[in-house]
Input
Amino acid sequence: MDRIRIKGGRQLKGEIVVSGSKNACLPLMVASLLTDQPLTLKNVPRLADITTMIRLLQQHGVEISATPGENGHSHGTTLTLKAGKIASTTAPYDIVRKMRASVLVLGALLAREGEARVSLPGGCAIGARPVDLHIAGLKAMGAEIDIDRGYIVAKAPEGLKGARYTFPKVSVGATENLIMAAALAKGTTVLDNAAREPEVTDLAECLSKMGVSISGIGTETLTIGGMERLTGTTHTVIPDRIETGTYAMAIAMTAGDVELVGGRLDLVEAAAQSLRAAGVVLKKTNRGIHVGRANGLHGVDVMTEPYPGFPTDLQAQMMALMTRAEGASMITETIFESRFMHVPELARMGANVTVHHESALVRGVPKLRGAEVMATDLRASVSLAIAGLAAEGETTLHRVYHLDRGYERLEEKLAACGAEIERLKG
Ligand code: UD1
Output
């Protein structure tokens, strides 16, 4: 298994190109199941999760071709996906267990083929993460759903019917699943308390181009007019706001000075507000966002919330930054239970963090020390890399495969800005 070794203490300087958003790209790829015509996606990041989705869709019968990105400074790939015929309506355990987002094929397959069998994703490192809302929403649209030997077995022989469904809790994945199901349902579907995350908006905009009428995009009520057939289209994936926020925190951690090329400040407003309160300077530039630090770093309180609130996917990184702030910071996680696995690892590097239920009290320390640390999930692993950048001495990050699921060429991007970071193979 690969490891990443970091020698701390270098300031990050220069520029980092922000990749296309993984979490926007995954549902967009699934949208290819809704039409027999080609869907072309630009600015696709090269990541393990994208490869897993390619494998899943290929076994459903989608033909996929990839060409390198055309944009001079972007490394984004262009993917063309064509689901001429659906070869299988089963999403097998072997693939789904690797990536929870596989469950997104449920709505699209059911809407197009009238049936789908999708392995239950099961538990994961950051909490139970059930799929009850995905199922309840599809049932409201007329689907019959059973759980059989670890699989969600869904049927709608007469097709899905438009319905009104109110999410009891905001869910990004369930909103995406239901939007795709509604796109090929008979009649109009109204989704209340829908997720407003930019990734949901990106999917809705792509589906509009494919012929679906969707109103209320970007709000908590989406009205979707189902169509009998959808067309193909070409769509550019939005920049990754979590990658943007992650690098902003890494730059702040090293008191660096970097332009995040292609980053969009409007997508990271909540995180930018917290960072500014902590003493970080973020400015919109012609090409993206400039991140620097005026002076010292101060502790700020942060609470994760659905968009437009502070994203749970930046909580671990913010905590890493706060370990070196002056004063204390209360970090409260409201989206996922057990999303503090980075705490004991940060503590091994000298951080002072006390967890009490869903809150963590971080007391800033004058220095962190490099250590051998273990990644437990995607965002936790990058928080340890951020800590390593500012730690005295050497940090070795184990289980880098978590990181590779969601960060494209992390070590290359950081090394180009002066970090002493390398990947140790095997
Ligand atoms: C997506 C993101 C993930 C991010 C999360 C929250 C992708 C591929 N992943 O995950 O990176 O951390 O949004 O912003 O886009 N829940 C239920 N029942 C359900 C579905 C969800 O109780 O049927 C709960 C979850 O356990 C969690 C909360 O709702 O507590 C939010 O989860 P959700 O928004 O669905 O997350 P994902 O779509 O899985």
